[in-house]
Write a structure and sequence with these properties.
By secondary structure, this protein is mainly α. It is built from five helices and no strands. The relative contact order is 0.15.
Length: 169
């Protein structure tokens, strides 16, 4: 298999698939580090629990991606997802803001939804690549993760309805 270390060429869809999977793995491992901090910063018990629930899910998603990469003869690590770095930094800035609890929670939800939308797009893309490349089992696993991300986004939207109203008072 082609080594996907920084600077290696991406010559075909399979190479791009592997590169994108490594990127997602990096994103998920960064999120595993960030979610406990977001949970600690949340004032609303339901939001705090939502971040903790998503932490367990994120660990499982990282394991799924790692298993796919291993099956392809590739290492999960070695790449840094720059997009997730930026999204995590945005969340860190919100954690540090001096704001009333409801307003901070509204900001944490916004940061969380940006992450979810990025992940939905990333999983949708690699799911499509897996299908085109004939990796039906991979596509099914990636679709599971994509659906979990969509469900998390919906949960955040539901929480935002109440929290945003409280933040506007």
């Amino acid at each position: 298999m082609a080594n996907q270390a920084l600077g290696m060429e991406i010559n075909d869809l399979k190479d791009l698939y592997i590169e994108q999977l490594q990127d997602i793995y990096s994103a998920e491992t960064q999120l595993v580090e960030a979610l406990p901090k977001m949970a600690d910063a949340a004032a609303t018990p339901e939001l705090k629990q939502g971040f903790l629930d998503h932490l367990a899910q994120t660990r499982t998603q990282a394991e799924r991606v790692a298993s796919i990469l291993t099956e392809l003869g590739e290492q999960p690590g070695g790449k840094t997802c720059k997009a997730m770095q930026g999204l995590v930094e945005e969340g860190s800035e919100m954690i540090k803001e001096k704001a009333v609890p409801a307003v901070k929670d509204a900001g944490l939800i916004a940061a969380g939804q940006r992450v979810e939308h990025y992940e939905i797009a990333a999983y949708g893309t690699v799911k499509t690549y897996a299908s085109v490349l004939g990796y039906g089992q991979h596509a099914a696993l990636l679709e599971t993760s994509e659906n979990e991300e969509k469900a998390t986004d919906q949960k955040l939207t539901m929480l935002a309805r109440e929290i945003n109203v409280a933040a506007s008072a």
